[in-house]
User: What shape does this take?
Amino acid sequence: MTAKLPKISYPVPSDKNGHAFSSVEELLSMVGGESSGLYLVGSQGMWHGGIHITDATIPWCALSTDSEAENEYRRELYKGEQFIRCMADGEIVAWRVSKDYESAAIEWRGEKLFLSTSFVLVKHYIQPGDTAESGLTFFTLYMNLAPYAAYKQQGSLADRKVAGVQRYYSSAEDLQAGRAAGKLGKDTVVTLSDTIVTRSSDQRQFTKVTITRETKNTEGETLAAGTRIWTVSDQGYLKATESVPVPSWWAKCSLAYTNESEGVVNCTSRTNWAYYLSSDDVLQYKNAGSLVADFPLSYEPGNTAQQVIRPGKNPGDVAKTFSLVTLGRDKDKLKKGDRVWVVSDGDSLTPVAPAASGSEPVFNDVYVPSAPVPVNAGDSLGHMGFYQLPEENGKRSRYQVHIECLSMDDMEKFITNPGRAGEDAPVYLIWKADAPLSDKSDTGITSGGRKTKAPGILTLAKVPGVDAEGNTLSNNKDAAYYQIRPEGGWLAAANVQKVSQYAFGELGFVTLNKAPESFDLIDGIKQPNNVVKGILEQLYKVAQDETRTTHALNKYNYKRLLELIDSNQDGYYSEQEYLQAIHNVSYRDHLYRLIAKHASEWYYGKDDQLWKTYLDTLTTDAPLWKTYLEAFLDKMTWMKAVSEKGVALGPEPWHMHPIIFLEAMNSSSKWFDIEKFIQKYKERHSVVFGFYDRGTKITIPELTPDSEESLRNLLNEMKNQYYENFYDFNEKFVSYMLATIRIESYAYRQKLFFKPISENISYDKAEVDYGSGPTASNRQRAILNHNTDIGDGYKYRGRGLVQLTWKIAYEKFKSLTGIDIVTNPDLCLEISTAVSIMMKGMKDGDFRAGHTLETYLGAGKKDYFNARLIINGYRDGIPDKADEFKDYAELFEVIINETM
Assistant: This one.
C-alpha cells in the first residue's frame, strides 16, 4: 500500500478576491482577533471543541439574506464574495441544510433569535507511510453555514451592470435618430425588460431598461430608481450581475439543492438555428447570424412575454414560435449573457438534464447519503451564516462558521509516527535545553562556553550548515554544525535531532484524556479538575522553559492555579483568571497543539447528564436561559443521529485544532513566496522577458493589473495542485510550466498574460483546420482525432493553458481529471481545470507519450530545450520554438530560487 497524502487548504481566503494566505501565521494572526469560539475552552468557561471565524475578521465569506434582522444588524448586506473552503480532500458523509432562519429561530424575551443549523461533515484519510499503521481517519466539521434561502435571494436574472460608459436614450424614436439623453457610468445597475429593438443604422440591439437604484450619469445628473431608458444591450455592453454560486457539493449529491430560478430551463440548440436581435427582426426574417448545434442557452418556456409567433412565409407554411434566450457562451461579437431570439417550438431546443437525480431536497434534518459525496480541498462548502445570541437585556449578532477537526482513531499512538513515515527525509531540526553552543569565526568553529536556554524547533531546510572546519555548505544534509539563530550560536550535529514532519509528538503535539463531568468547565465555584487542569499543566511546562525576563512570572501563576485545583477547596473564584491563563497569547502555539479527547456538545442532548448537570443549576437562578439553551440543543445536536446511521463518529472523539493540525500534515509546505515572485517578475516582464516576435525578443509594455491578478491566481492554483501530482518540489518543473504558459496562454488582443484562453479562430476556419465536414482541409486527420460531427472543429479548438485541441484529447483529459470537458469544453478555461490538465499531462506524458517532465527535468537533468517535446513535436528538425521556451524557463527558475 502506498502513502496517501490529501491536499490541504485553508478554510478561508485572505481577501475578497480569493487570494490565499501566504502562511499559517498570517491566517492565525487574522483570526486571532476573534472574541468568540476560542479553542478548547470558550470565553464563558464552557467546553468548545473547535474555532469560530466570523465577519469581524473575514467578512468576505459572509452571505446575507434580506431578512429584517440582518438589515437591522448591518445596512449593507454581505454578498458572499468568497466561500468557506473544505480543508482537505475527502468525502462528505453527513449534512444538514437549514431552509431558512425562520425555521431555526429560538424565542428569547418576546422576540425570535436567528441562527442557522446547517452543517457539513467531511471524512478524510491520511497515510503518510507505506503501511496502514501510519494511517489516520479524521473528520472536519463546518457548522452554522448560511441557509438555503441565502442562495435563493441573490438578485434577478434580469439584473445587469453597464460594462463601460455608454449612451442612453429617452425613447425608441430617439435611439433610432441617435439623440442621446446622456451617458451611463460604468457598473450602473439596470433591470432588463422584454422590449427590444434593433437600430437600423448599425444593426445594434437596444433594450428598454429600468434604473435599479438611484444613480448619477456621467454629467452628475441624478437618475431616480425606476427611471426607464433605452441603451445598447448586445456584445457584452450589459454584463450579468454576479450572483453567489451555490456550494459546489450541491451539484454532486443526489438531492436537488439548486438556486436555479423557477421557470428557467437550461438547454442547447438541436441543430444550427438562426438567431435574431429583436422580435421585429424575427417577423421580418432579418437574422444576425447562426448558432451551431449544441450551443448552450437558457430561456423561460412559460413566459409568453418573451415569445413571438412568426407566421409561415408562404401560404400553407406552419407558424413558428421564437423565444428570447440567453447565450451560455460567446458567439461572434455577442458575449455570454447576451439575449437573442431563437426558434423554440417542438424539439428545437434540447433541455439539459440536471446533474442531480431530481430527488426532493431534505431541509432542517440530518442527512446521511447512501454514497458519500467526494470533495476536494479548497472546494466550496458554503458561507458564514447569520447568528444571534441572547443577552440579558437583548441580543448580539454576527455571521460565523464553527469549524472542528475530530478523530475516533488512537491519537496517542498516531502522534508517535508508528509507521516511521518521513524519517528518510526529515523536515525539522530540534534541540533540547542546555545543549553546548559553539561560535563560528574566520578561523572556524570554537567552543562558545554557552548552552541553549530552551528547547526549540526549526525548519531544517532554512538552517545554515557548515562542515567541521566551518566552511559553508550549499546543502546541510551532512553538516557538522548547524546555526541556531534563536540561541545566537551553532550546535554540533550530535546535539540536534532531525525529525520527520509526521513525528507530531516530537513537534509539540500532546494528547489530553480526561473525562468531564459537565460541559461547564469553569463555573466559578467548583475547581476545574477536568481538561482545564490538563491544559494548565502543559502550559506550565512551557512556562518553565521561559527565557524572556518579561514573562518570568508566568510559571508561578500556572503553578498557583494548579495548586488551587489540587487543593479541592471549592468556593467562589475568578473564572477570568483561569481563562486568561489558558488563552495567554504567548503560549498560543502550544495550546493549539493540544489534542483533547472530550465529549462532544453536538452528541449529547439536554437530558444527558453532561448537559443536565449544568442546566439544573439554571432552574432557579436563570430559568429563561435554561429554556433557551434547551431549545438550542434540540435544534443543534446531530452527532448521535449521524452515528446511528453508520458514520464512525462516537460521543467522545479526539479534538484537534483544525488549522494547526492540518497544516502539520500538509506536504505542500515548500513553495516560493508568491507575492515576492510577482514583484520580481513585474520588474523583468517588459525587457528581460519581453516577447518573441518571429524569433526576435522585443520590449513590451509593463504588466497590466489584470495580468498581475491572473498570475497571482495561477501561482496559487499551481501551489494548491502541485503536491497532488508531484511528491517533491522541483523548481525546474514549475519553471517549465510557467514558460509554457507565458507563451501558450497569451491573449494578444487583450494584452493579457497567464490566463487560460481559447484559440482565436472563427467557426468557419476551425471547421477547415480541425473539422471533418465538407470544408475540412484534412478530414481523415480530424476523424482519427474523433472530430466526427459538424461543429467539432470549433467545439474542440485549442483551450486552456496549453491549448488542448481535438476531441480525442478532451476525452482523454475528461477521464484523467474527472471533469466533463467533452460536454462543456469551456471548463478548460477555469483555472483549476486548466492547471490540472497541464500538470497531469506534463507529468505522465499524456500530451505526447514518453515525453514527461521527469524525462527532461528530473533529478540531475536540465534539458529545457528538448522539454518542448512534452507538448509539441519537431519543426525543421528541432523542437518547435525550443529556444524561446528554454529562455523563459531559465528566467523563471532564477526568480523561483530568489523567492524560496
